[in-house]
Each structure stands twice: as C-alpha cells, then as structure tokens.
C-alpha cells in the first residue's frame, strides 16, 4: 500500500472516527466468533433447571434462560454461527453475482437482457419471504440457510457488476488488452473484475449486516437453526415469551449483540465508501 493511500485512509478516519470504531468492532466480533467456545465461562448448551431464569449477577453476567443455561455464554458462542452463515452467503453471492454481472455487462445483447429481466423479477418479490419459501422447501439446515441468503443477495451484485463493467468495457486499457491477444474471458477475469472489486467491497460490508439479520430472522420464526444450537435469532424468539414476566435479560443480550453486529457492518460499509471513492481524494 502506497504512502498516498495510507495518508488518504488516515484522513478519512480522522474525519469519520466511527469507521475506525466499526473496524475494531468487526475485528473483535471475528475474534470472539473464532475463540468464543473456548473462553466462555459455561457450557452454552448445558442446562440446570435449578438456576433457571436467574437475573444477571456476578456468576451469570447476562442471567440464565428457562433451562438454566448461561445467556452470556450462549450469546458469545452464537456469534460464530451467525457470522459464518453471513460470511458464507455473502461470499457465495458475491462470487456468482460478480461473474454473472461482469459477463452480462461485457457481452451485452440478448444475454444481458435475459439476465436483467430475471433480476427484475427476483427483486419484485419480498426477499425475506423468498428466503422463507426456499428454506421451507429445502429444509432448515445451515447449508440451506446459506443458499437462500446467497440467492436473495444475488441481484445486488449482478446489477452492480453489470453497471460497472458496462462503463469500462470500451475503455482504452480494455481495448489494449484485447489488441494484445487476450481472450474475452481473460479480459473479464484479469482486468475488469479486479478493477471493480474495490467498489463492490462497500456492498459486501453492507450485505454482511443484512445477511446476519436474515439468518437471525429465519431462526426467529422457526425456519432457521434449531435448538439447542446457540443462535441470536432463536435466543430472541425464546426470550420474547418471558418479557411479560419481567425476564428482560433473555432478549437483551442476544438482541444487543445482533444490533451491534449489524451496526458495525453498516458503519464499516460507509467508511469503505469514503476510502474507496476517488472523489474523496481531491
């Protein structure tokens, strides 16, 4: 990374310190997801009805649930599954969507129109409802949640990649690559795709937050991950039944973790936009 780029990143971070906070927050979430099962004070699936529904205390920082399981431990361990689902789904939709969109933007013609109409029809559906239907049809396994979440994210990457490649396909450096004998596929993979990746990084960060919400939402309505696996959406759904009896901590800890994760990803996306936008360098 050049000195000019580092200076630009530092300038953006000074003007928007929330971006640095978000980057640190995302890093902490990833570390907790990686080592969470080994650092939590209690087994996240071990029940003990003798201590069920205890309020937060020095022994149980976020209280216990209706089965006596430690809410804090379950919340920390759940970060791995939720972030894994979100990262896998966004990676899959990014790779497939970027390739399809780039080919359509480069080739144009009938293929571009056909894929464009498919994307329009797909986006006409409420995307969460479409994910619900896919998981209900395929079965509520983790891999099916990833597939459904990736599928409903495809239109964003296809449209973005198509538009960016369509603008660049007749640029001088693309013409030079073709004149040097590079095949059309080589031009797309070696020149066009790497050129649009920085701009797509913003969409990736934003979609990560949305994918976390989608996975938690599916679990909340009973179509996602099932018990006794720790997962933020399940924990919120179970805790909601006890709010009326004053057991607020069952929802507070996983709900706060879910909110913080989505917030950090959104703030990071805004910061990446400022860092990668060429107009910010003037």
Automatic annotation (TrEMBL):
UniProt lineage: Bacteria, Pseudomonadati, Pseudomonadota, Betaproteobacteria, Burkholderiales
Spans traversing the lipid bilayer: 20-40, 83-106, 118-139, 145-161, 208-228, 248-269
InterPro entries from the UniProt entry: BP-dependent_transpt_permease (IPR050366), MetI-like (IPR000515), MetI-like_sf (IPR035906), OppC_N (IPR025966)
Topology in the lipid bilayer: Multi-pass membrane protein
Keyword line: Cell membrane, Membrane, Transmembrane, Transmembrane helix, Transport
Family: Belongs to the binding-protein-dependent transport system permease family.
The protein, known as: Peptide/nickel transport system permease protein
Keyword Transmembrane helix: yes
């Amino acid at each position: 990374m050049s000195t000019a780029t580092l200076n630009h990143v530092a300038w953006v971070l000074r003007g928007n310190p929330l971006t640095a906070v978000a980057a640190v927050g995302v890093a902490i979430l990833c570390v907790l997801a990686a080592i969470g099962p080994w650092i939590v004070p209690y087994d996240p699936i071990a029940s003990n009805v003798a201590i069920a529904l205890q309020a937060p205390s020095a022994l149980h920082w976020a209280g216990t649930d209706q089965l006596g399981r430690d809410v804090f431990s379950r919340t920390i361990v759940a970060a791995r599954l939720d972030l894994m689902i979100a990262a896998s789904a966004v990676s899959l939709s990014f790779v497939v969507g970027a390739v399809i969109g780039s080919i359509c933007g480069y080739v144009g013609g009938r293929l571009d129109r056909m894929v464009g109409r498919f994307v329009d029809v797909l986006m006409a559906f409420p995307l969460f409802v479409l994910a619900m239907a896919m998981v209900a049809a395929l079965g509520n396994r983790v891999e099916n949640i990833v597939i459904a979440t990736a599928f409903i994210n495809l239109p964003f990457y296809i449209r973005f990649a198509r538009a960016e490649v369509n603008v660049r396909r007749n640029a001088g450096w693309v013409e030079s690559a073709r004149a040097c004998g590079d095949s059309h596929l080589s031009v797309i993979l070696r020149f066009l795709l790497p050129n649009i990746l920085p701009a797509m990084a913003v969409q990736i960060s934003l979609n990560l937050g949305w994918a976390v919400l989608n996975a938690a939402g599916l679990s909340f309505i009973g179509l996602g991950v099932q018990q006794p696996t720790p997962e933020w959406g399940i924990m919120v759904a179970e805790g909601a039944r006890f709010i009326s009896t004053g057991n607020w901590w069952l929802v507070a800890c996983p709900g706060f973790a879910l909110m913080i994760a989505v917030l950090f990803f959104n703030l990071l996306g805004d910061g990446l936009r400022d860092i990668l936008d060429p107009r910010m360098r003037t």
